[in-house]
Amino acid sequence: QLQGLPARFTAVNGERFTVVVSDFQEVRHYKLTVHSKWRKKDGRLVAVGFYIANAPGSWKQFVRQELPAQEGEFSEEDIWDQYVGGRV
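The structure corresponding to this sequence follows.
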């Protein structure tokens, strides 16, 4: 989900975008191919939900590091599928 986008950002469901996401310290940058899933206007700003269709391996490492799985809840594959190339 990306938040705080200008209202003129008119993502249509399924539209493809290339986005660059930075880590929390803006040291590493990840280029992702995404498809929009939903759009919600909040005043003058917009939030958009995306399905990640393609991402570099370094993104996978970042997600594993920042969003560790709770032991016994989901398999690594299930968690990864939520963030890249998983079920829609």
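The mean pLDDT is 75.
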